Amino acid sequence: MRCAELGISLGDKSMWEQGYGSDAMRLVCAIGFQQLDLHRIELWVHAGNDRAMHVYRKVGFTLEGTAREAFFRDGRRVDLHLMGLLATEFAGAFPPASDRAGWERPHRGATHRR
Q1: Alpha-carbon distance 76 to 101, whole Å?
Q2: How many H-runs (helices) and E-runs (strands) does the chain carry?
Q3: First to last CA, the chain
Q4: CATH code, domain with 56
Q5: Rounded Cα distance, 71 and 61, in Å
Q6: Could you tell me whether strands 40-46 and 3-5 are parallel, antiparallel, or unpaired per DSSP bridges?
Q7: Do the domain assignments include residue 84?
Q8: Quick check: helix, strand or coil at residue 94?
């Protein structure tokens, strides 16, 4: 089927809100679709993790469903959302490596990208 499941975590809170999560997601998806020839990438995210949901949507993932009370965390049951991204949806969202000559991650605090 050429599908994969993806997960990401930025444990160091000082690195949050700087675009590293979005960059990592785009890069991993680009490798999956362009080099591994995947058709689909999916992930599960805790229903209350709005920051992650924002990153995944920015990359192109679509909410596909909810597994109610599917995970036990901190003494309570939480819902998990399933999100998916197809190769056809990702095409063009992140240029192939051959088109990224000179592309690099901006320094911390930069407000725009090349």
Answers
A1: 48
A2: 3, 4
A3: 35
A4: 3.40.630.30
A5: 21
A6: parallel
A7: yes
A8: coil
Instruction: Residue 85: count other Cβ atoms within 10 Å of its Cβ.
Output: 24
CA dist., res. 25 & res. 36, Å (int): 15
- Asked if residue 107 belongs to a domain, the reply is no
* Angstrom distances, CA of residue 93 to CA of 11, 26, 29, 71, 100: 26, 8, 10, 32, 12
User: Can you tell me which residue has the tokens 């949806």?
Assistant: 89
pTM (global) more than 0.85 = no
Q: Based on the structure, what is the number of domains in the chain? A: 1
Residue 110 vs residues 18, 30, 47, 74, 106: alpha-carbon distances, Å: 9, 23, 31, 36, 6
* pLDDT, tens digit (0-9, with 9 covering 90-100), for 89-108: 987 565 555 554 454 544 44
Structural domain that includes position 68: 3-7+17-97
